[in-house]
Each structure stands twice: as structure tokens, then as C-alpha cells.
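Quick entry, no commentary yet.
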Amino acid sequence: MNAALLQWGLVSFMIGIFLSLPLAAVYYDQSPPWAKVFANPRKLKSAHLDFFTQAFAAGFVYLLENRAGSPLPAWVIIPLLYGTIGNPLILLLEATVLIRRGGMAVFYRIMKATSPASLLFAWLVIAATFLKTGPLIFLGAFVLTGAFIVWRQRGK
């Protein structure tokens, strides 16, 4: 099995724990130094929760692999791990003033362009690998229904 899933899941979980400190400083203490760094507290809260969610997701994939008895190939695991850290990192960067200019702005744009796509790719492959036909058809119908609803509302 891919122990990297557990290791990076733990990294994601620990970052989520560490983010509780600035989150408390911004929300409960209204600390001016922390508020200057984290100008968007809602994004900070979103990043905090998303690091926990991604940690759960990495552990879930590890359990899927364990139960199935076959590890996923590296071309699925690498994009999954990249998105597991990258997606909440995007939210964390959006919470700060760091993304407005310079090298951090370039890094942010690259992450925003690549991380969600890599995570979506990995989860599509995982779903196609582990779901049986019935749940896979239901999932496809659910996604198509949502896309249809969004398409219908685009001009209103």
C-alpha cells in the first residue's frame, strides 16, 4: 500500500492543527499582527477545515487500497498528494496578503491552475477503479444533473 498517503495525510492534518492558532488569534483575540497577515479570516477558516478534509481523504484512499489489496499506480497517487496539500494551500494563500505581488503571486497562480485539476483527475480514476457499475452510473447522473442545473441558471 502507499504509505505516502498516510504520511502526507498526517502532514495535512498537522497543518490543520497548527492553523488553529492563527485562527483563534484572528477570530477570538482580534490580534492586529495576525489580522495584518491573515486579511481574509474566512479563507483562513476554509483552509483550516480543508487541511483536515484532505487528511481524511488521503486516509480513505489508503483504506480503499488496503481493502482491495492492490495499490494505485504512482500516476494516480502523485496528483492526489499534490492536490491534497495544494488545494488547502490555495485557500491559505488567499487568506494572506502575500498573493498580491511578486514570486508568491506567481506561485499562487500556478497552484490555482494545477492543483484542483490534479485532484479531480486522481479522484475520477479512483472512482472508476473502485466503484461498481451501479454507483458509478449514479455518480455520473448526479454530476450531469448538477451540470444541467448550472447550465440552465447561467443566463438568469
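second:
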Amino acid sequence: MKVVCPTCNTRYDIPGDKIVQGRTLAVTCKNCGGQIVTETEEFQFMTEKDGFKGYAGFRKRFSAAIIDGSILMVAGFIIGGFAGFLYGYSTGTREGSGALGNIVGIILGWLYFALMESSSKQGTLGKMAL
């Protein structure tokens, strides 16, 4: 069976008798040193035809940025509005609410990108949509 390492895209030819259905299998890539462990019923390597197909072009990246920006804008409006309301209610003034909104927006954007891109999906909602 021809397989491709999902980390570095190195191609391997693994004999079919080495793959036993229903057993845990651990394989170390000789190129990148990454270990692939499967505990499912099937051995899960990417096949050669499903390997790396190239990077996304400008249109896909721009569209993903528009989707992510829209999501952050709506979430920022809701969360920032709530934070501004609480700030105004507790202090009795609107002074400083703009700075608070900026801080909340920076933290929200940072958390969105950091948590989404470090998840198992490895991408934001806009990137996954495209």
C-alpha cells in the first residue's frame, strides 16, 4: 500500500501484510521523526492520491479572511457591547469605554486565532469553510 506521511508528505510503500485490522499500530516517519498511532479499526495513513495538493490561492485566503473578520465583528459587537454596558453601569460614565472595547477586541481576536489554529482542525472557521 502506498501511503504519505501527514506531517511531511514523505511517500512510503508499506506491505499489506504489515497492516492488521483492529489492532493499534505505531509508525515513525524516517524523514520527520513524527509518530503516527492509530487505535481504530483501520490503519489511517493518507493515501498517495489524497496527499498534499498545494496551497490555497489569493481568492480563497481573502475569502477566509472576510469570513473570519465577519465572525469577529459580530462577536466583538456582542461581547464589547456587554463589556461597555457593564463598565458604564459600574462607573456611571462612558469615559474609557473605547479603550476597554479595544482591549476586549484584541483579546478576542487573539483567542479566536490561537484556539482555532491550535485545535485538531488546524484552521479558523473561514479556512475550514473554504
